[in-house]
């Protein structure tokens, strides 16, 4: 990001998100986790500025806990505190304070957030919280160096049986991320082997499309592939199967950027998605109206959603650029997270003079 001249924008984006999390964390044991109703929101197609329906807010607290949500928010704040340590010490300490409070809340008051916030189950169901507790503790150790957090992470790693090989790495299953992070923090061989088992299986044995994309799920196909690419690049940095994992990551990201015959990143390349399933970008500039009419129009979105990674193709590399079909054309924040991190990792290898063309 520094080499691209984007570092200040990275800091702005991080601060925007963590400022929001801080506002949602209104007391040590209270965290707002959802604004609006999924059922009501799904009835609206148009600009977010045009939404005029009631948008209730839902929280987790000691009576309605959500260890997964509180733990993941703690991890996000701790990781961002690490970034700001050398940029803004006071802000870093503020983030760490909230992260520690949220971790304590998640740890002492156990439960799944979608039991507390009922509407979340249909769209963002959480199946367990052990990985989030471990994830949060590991990140808190990384930023604070307090041995207590590492001890907690290692205890939960065993308690929740996180050494077993997962099949994916995404927002609801962070086990592979926990394995790699603990390998980085401790250099212990059992963590290294756990991460290696995940990467080896995905790289060597996981189903792939005819053109070579690793295929894990029909929803968020590219997201899953990019997440694995990023995570295995992290393990490669530890000297584990570096050549194999780096080549794999490059091949997966190249597929998304155009080696497959088309780009799956909006605004990038000669043949990219022009109709992402994204309401605001389907609208003309105000004051032109934007309704479900725009949803069904067979024309490119008037606003180019630069950089957005769409869900992607099916197991046979088939893809259709249709706004109505979210299976192929959905865009989300978590779809982009692993992708752009993997791109940054590959660029970092270039800057180090490591060629992946051999």
Automatic annotation (TrEMBL):
Entry keyword annotation includes Hydrolase: yes
UniProt entry keywords in alphabetical sequence: Carbohydrate metabolism, Cellulose degradation, Glycosidase, Hydrolase, Polysaccharide degradation
GO MF assignments: cellulase activity
Catalysed conversion reaction: Endohydrolysis of (1->4)-beta-D-glucosidic linkages in cellulose, lichenin and cereal beta-D-glucans
PROSITE patterns: GH9_3
Pfam families hit by this protein: Glyco_hydro_9
GO biological process: one example: cellulose catabolic process
Active site: 321, 330
Transcription recorded as keyword: no
Residue stretches making up the Glycoside hydrolase family domain: 3-342
EC number: 3.2.1.4
Record PANTHER family: ENDO-1,4-BETA-GLUCANASE
Family to which the UniProt record says this protein belongs: Belongs to the glycosyl hydrolase 9 (cellulase E) family.
Official protein name in the record: Endoglucanase
Originating organism: Homalodisca liturata
């Amino acid at each position: 990001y520094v080499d691209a001249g984007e570092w200040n924008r990275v800091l702005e984006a991080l601060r925007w998100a963590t400022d929001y999390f801080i506002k949602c964390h209104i007391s040590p044991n209270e965290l707002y986790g959802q604004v609006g109703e999924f059922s009501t929101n799904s009835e609206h197609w148009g600009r977010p500025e045009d939404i005029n329906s009631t948008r209730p807010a839902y929280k987790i607290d000691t009576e309605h806990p959500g260890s997964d949500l509180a733990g993941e928010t703690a991890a996000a704040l701790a990781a961002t505190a690490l970034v700001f340590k050398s940029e803004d010490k006071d802000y870093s300490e503020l983030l760490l304070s909230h992260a520690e409070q949220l971790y304590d809340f998640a740890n002492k008051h156990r439960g799944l957030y979608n039991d507390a916030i009922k509407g979340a189950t249909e769209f963002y169901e959480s199946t367990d919280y052990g990985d989030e507790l471990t994830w949060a503790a590991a990140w808190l150790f990384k930023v604070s160096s307090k041995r207590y957090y590492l001890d907690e992470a290692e205890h939960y790693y065993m308690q929740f049986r996180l050494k077993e090989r997962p099949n994916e790495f995404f927002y609801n299953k962070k086990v592979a991320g926990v394995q790699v992070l603990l390998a980085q923090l401790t250099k212990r061989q059992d963590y290294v082997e756990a991460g290696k088992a995940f990467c080896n299986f995905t790289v060597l044995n996981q189903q792939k499309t005819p053109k070579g994309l690793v295929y894990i799920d029909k929803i968020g196909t590219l997201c899953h592939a990019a997440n694995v690419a990023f995570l295995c690049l992290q393990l490669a940095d530890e000297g584990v199967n570096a050549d194999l994992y780096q080549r794999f990551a490059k091949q997966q990201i190249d597929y998304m950027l155009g080696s497959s015959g088309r780009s799956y990143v909006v605004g990038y390349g000669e043949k990219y998605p022009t109709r992402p399933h994204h309401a605001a970008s389907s609208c003309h500039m105000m004051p032109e109206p934007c309704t479900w009419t725009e949803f069904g129009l067979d024309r490119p979105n008037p606003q180019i959603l630069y950089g957005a990674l769409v869900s992607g193709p099916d197991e046979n590399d088939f893809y259709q650029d249709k706004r109505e079909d979210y299976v192929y054309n959905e865009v989300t924040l978590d779809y982009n997270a692993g992708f752009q991190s993997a791109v940054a990792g590959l660029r970092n290898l270039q800057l180090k003079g490591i060629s992946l063309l051999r």
